[in-house]
């Protein structure tokens, strides 16, 4: 049985066409599952009963079992979802005043080895399938619906893993999420973050998603120390890509800059960043470092963060200090995956079978 959430509309049409059935049935299925939030084939009443049975035997609409849920004081929720092979996938729900953002994962572990990131300490386990990426969105949709809470409005690919290191499955997932016959999410509501894997970034166009690049330093020496990938994709190469990126008039690439005490948070660092980006139409997200027992770095003092922020504002950059949500539940930027390292603070642990609850209708 194939996981429905990994199928683009064109792939679904091809499978249904191979049965000798009308291809428009694929659009009907997309509408039932993604637009009407119905995960029960038996209730899809504009599809003949016999064909509903066939579809129920071909495709699984099961959502991912929730192995654990942790609620932060700031209102965000980290869900630990159980994959079929025993691994767990972490995703974070972040409600705000006018929107609900979901942070999704694209890999289990990560091979980028960024020194400030817990996920990198896990090492690379495997890529998530497109079905597992979309499945996070559908699982959370059902979780929120049953809880009577507002639905997800924005998605950020900023969870476990490097999206551009799993480009084929990420691209498929983006196609499914944005399909007008289904969830119909605008590309402006989806952000894909990368350490700067240019081979993957070059395959995306301006309407694939909002692009964010994890920069974290304005000089190669510091960035290479923090992010080994910089030895392959240097700051100069990243800036060449950004300047050559063909976007719309409204396109702004976001640069993420994690502020780490004594490493990249001085006013000299702010000046170097301003000089680097002075001719680039962009947005800068400053992210005060989220400490972990698995990394050696510290969070800057609030006053130093404010000075860095003000320096950039005074030079007319669009720059914000990004609120790190879910710090107290191991759900903030750079903290996902602590359970794989046996950190009691994460309430995780090495991947194992757990008592699970599931919001799904299993098909």
Whole-angstrom Rg: 21 Å
β content, as a range?
15-25%
Task: Report the CATH superfamily of the largest domain.
Answer: Aldolase class I
The residue-averaged pLDDT reads 90
Give the N-terminus to C-terminus distance in angstroms: 10 Å
**Relative helix content:** 25-40%
Shape: elongated
> Strand order of the main beta sheet, please?
3-4-5-6-9-10-11-12-13-14
How many distinct domains? 2
Question: What is this entry, summarized?
Answer:
The protein is an alpha/beta fold and 363 residues long. Helices cover 30% and strands 18% of the residues. It has 11 helices and 14 strands.
Question: Would you kindly provide a written description of the structure presented here, covering whatever features stand out?
Answer:
Residues 343-363 have low confidence and may be disordered. The chain has two domains: 2-60, DNA polymerase, domain 1 (Orthogonal Bundle), CATH 1.10.150.530; 66-346, Alpha-Beta Barrel (TIM Barrel). The chain is 30% helix and 18% strand. The protein has helices at residues 9-18, 24-35, 49-58, 118-122, 130-146, 167-178, 198-201, 220-226, 235-244, 267-277, 302-313; strands at residues 2-3, 59-60, 66-71, 77-82, 88-95, 100-103, 107-109, 124-127, 154-157, 190-194, 210-214, 253-259, 282-288, 318-321. A hairpin with a 5-residue loop joins strand 4 and strand 5. The radius of gyration is 21 Å and the shape is elongated. By secondary structure, the protein is an alpha/beta fold. Helix 5 crosses helix 6 (167-178). The strands form three sheets. Strands 3-4-5-6-9-10-11-12-13-14 form a ten-stranded mixed beta sheet, covered by helices on one side. Strands 1-2 form a two-stranded parallel ribbon. It contains eleven helices and 14 strands.
